[in-house]
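Budget justification, computational time. The allocation requested in the original proposal was used primarily to generate structure tokens for proteins on the priority list. As evidence of use, we reproduce two of the resulting records. The first is shown immediately below.
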Amino acid sequence: MEECAENIIICMRQIPLLLKENQSVSNKLKTTRYIARLHLQYCSILSQLGQHEEALEHAKYGVKYTHIAIKQLKDIIKPYTMKTNTAIIERTAKELLPIIKMLNSKLLNEKEKPKKHTVDFDIRTLFGFTGGEVLNKVNIGSIMQLTPLDVIDLFMKCNDLYELTRESILEKITLLVVSYFCVSTEKRFLSQKIKNKHTDFEFFHSHALKIACTFLPGECPLVSHVYMTYQKHYSILQQPIVLYKLIISLKIL
């Protein structure tokens, strides 16, 4: 684990060197995405080593760079919506802009004072009753577990059209959910060690859940994971909500 941590530190020192002033926004976004992922992976390793204070700092860096990536994505999309062309990229940009604006509106301001709020998710969406494509690869492990990058992937130039794909958008949403979830987890660990050290960990977890339920399909493993852990740690009754009765009624029918 210590060796993994050392190698991630080396990676974090090297990847920013790939950022150049003359790079396109889409290439800068690609690098920003890698940096966010590295911080979250480093957070995971530090957490397993019991270094929760430092893990929390890197979880916050994960949030920071994910915010930057989402704002960069908006900068890519917006100019295409001003054009009157009917090319695929212009049409796609116009469809995506409202979604990206909504996503930007849900980014937590660093100076915002955390407050407790209810998780007003739609239970049908959460458990996949609305159908849709099953995204089995969208889980917390796809972000937190170490995965190698080959040379082609690292130096491949991105273009605006790639950033407007469904896969690219989902990756950024996943990064956002996981980064808030990591902040919550590390704050919760620290609060167990030092009473009243952090009191806003539920706020970050519930915000991660709200974003997951808003933008990801209900059958997505990441949604299930964030929901189940929220219920485990914060539910007063710690019982499945309504779903149990619904399953019974379906069996009777």
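The second record produced under the same allocation is shown here.
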Amino acid sequence: MEHPFISSLSDKTLEELQNAITDLNNKLSFAYRMQNSSMINQLLMVLASYKAEHSRKMDALLKKQGDKTKINIEKES
């Protein structure tokens, strides 16, 4: 489930998304240590939003790169 208060993340670069995910994981670790279930739930939703956008961007990048690196192995007649 994505966080309802996060607007579009499409303007962020892959590096910015990765840095945010790392930061959110650190905060989530802290929330687990403090046993703060409300904070944990909020962070999990935010993290899901960032990971989903990161995944969309990676899929698009891999698809774009895959088109350029295809090798034709069909036998020419």
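A brief technical remark on that second record: The chain has a mean pLDDT of 88.
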